[in-house]
Amino acid sequence: MKAKVIMVQGTMSNSGKSFITAGLCRAFARDGYRVAPFKSQNMALNSYITKDGLEIGRAQVVQAEAAGVEPTADMNPILLKPTSHTGSQVIVNGRVRGQMKAMDYFKHKTELIPDIMAAFRRLAEDYDIIVIEGAGSPAEINLKENDIVNMGLAKMADAPVLLVGDIDRGGVFASLYGTVKLLEEEEQARIQGLIINKFRGDPEILKSGIRMIEDLVHIPVVGVVPMEKIHIDDEDSLSEHLLSEEMTGGLDVAVIRLPHISNFTDFTAFERLSGVSLRYVDRASKLGSPHLILLPGTKNTMADLRWLRNNGLEERIIRLSRDGVSVMGVCGGYQMLGSVLSDPEGVEDGGEMAGMGLLPGQTIFREEKTRTRIRGAVINGVLKGCPVEGYEIHMGDTRMKDGNNGGFLPWIRLDDGRMDGITSRDGTVMGTYLHGVFDEGDFLSRLIEPLMEKYHLNGDFGRRQDVKAYKEAEYDKLADLVRKSLDMEKIYQIMGGRPDV
């Protein structure tokens, strides 16, 4: 095998595995190596479509961007997209394999090992270094049997492991010690370094604790990573972004936090604009009177629309829309805004239900998933002529109903000739299937600027914002943080030395 390998595991979910993995990818790439991220099995509703139309988890896309390489399905051969508390859509090598209950998947997941290792070997032939990310904790003793994502994968890939603990939550030494000691001796031997993540304060205070944990587990601490504000996309349902509920001034943009919310990273572009306050709302009492309401994607449109209906948010959104508040839906949110949702094949809940009725769209769910990256241009409404770019991930088709549509128009013409989305003439209600549409600087600024004028606000609308340059600068900050905080020479030593290139 050509590639050197290192694996990042964590003592718990949200310990910072994805963050550290992305930082290592960037640091190794800046040392001149060709680097690939790898996660054998990812569970997330934030996904992405590769250039060849395959679906993978968002974290591996971020890590590939940090490494300066094109994301591919080999970097995340298994993606689980939860559709309920006990079941998920199973995506293998970028394509839907089907729906499975958790217990059924647990019984059959080892059958996917050939797919995992084939993807890993292809990367190992093409790259100098592979940085593997684990999932959750390797010490979940009820799930360790037939593991394919933590120590089981480390053994298959013969990978040394760095174990990350989150000190910000407290109890970092206990979590590091407990994780190590719950593993088999062979698994413990694979852990070659400990990382303390999200530290606030004077690192001198930690020195005695570091000495003691090293004496207890006989594994060196290879670094303490301070808590720093670096903006890279999250994919985790525990993301701090989703906890932002308060209006902080300026233009009030409210994202409805649906139970099955997907691709919430669509909205991070708003966070980079001065004069704009982005918040997530899951109760009618918290919605207030925002200037713009965004309905995000969801893995279960019909169930989440029923949730909106039952908790009063639907009624509140409709009333605000009729009072002139702008409303925009993306993917599942776009489907909800229509008049009718039909599921004849039982893709979601089956049957038919009324939509919110704010757009004259009729959605029919189908088994076949649309997966594509696409460009286009707005052809009607207040953003007419604006270029757009994004990607589609959906299992439904939405059409305008026949006849008089009361001033509503098709919104976007895609480069492949298809029409996407619906808009009101005045742009107060809009919907599209395109994820990532706000990353286009002109689109975002032309959406925000008239709202700023309407509500007599001032701010930087991010006109022609260079999203790529912004991301590159943040990845460089991350690499600098990793280099400053971790013993990179020790990590190269753990990997068996620097690659020969």
Automatic annotation (TrEMBL):
UniProt-listed GO biological process terms: cobalamin biosynthetic process
Record-annotated CobQ/CobB/MinD/ParA nucleotide binding domain positions: 6-228
GO terms of molecular function: ABC-type vitamin B12 transporter activity; catalytic activity
UniProt pathway annotation: Cofactor biosynthesis; adenosylcobalamin biosynthesis
Domain CobB/CobQ-like glutamine amidotransferase: 252-442
Gene3D superfamilies per record: 3.40.50.880, P-loop containing nucleotide triphosphate hydrolases
Keywords annotated in UniProt: Cobalamin biosynthesis, Glutamine amidotransferase
InterPro entries the record matches: Class_I_gatase-like (IPR029062), CobQ/CobB/MinD/ParA_Nub-bd_dom (IPR002586), CobQ_GATase1 (IPR033949), CobQ_N (IPR047045), CobQ_synth (IPR004459), GATase_3 (IPR011698), P-loop_NTPase (IPR027417)
Entry annotation: catalytic residues: C331, H435
Keyword Membrane annotated: no
Stored PANTHER family: COBYRIC ACID SYNTHASE, DETHIOBIOTIN SYNTHETASE
Family: Belongs to the CobB/CobQ family. CobQ subfamily.
Role summary: Catalyzes amidations at positions B, D, E, and G on adenosylcobyrinic A,C-diamide. NH(2) groups are provided by glutamine, and one molecule of ATP is hydrogenolyzed for each amidation.
Protein name (database record): Cobyric acid synthase
Protein species of origin: Frisingicoccus caecimuris
Lineage: Bacteria, Bacillati, Bacillota, Clostridia, Lachnospirales
Gene assigned in the entry: cobQ
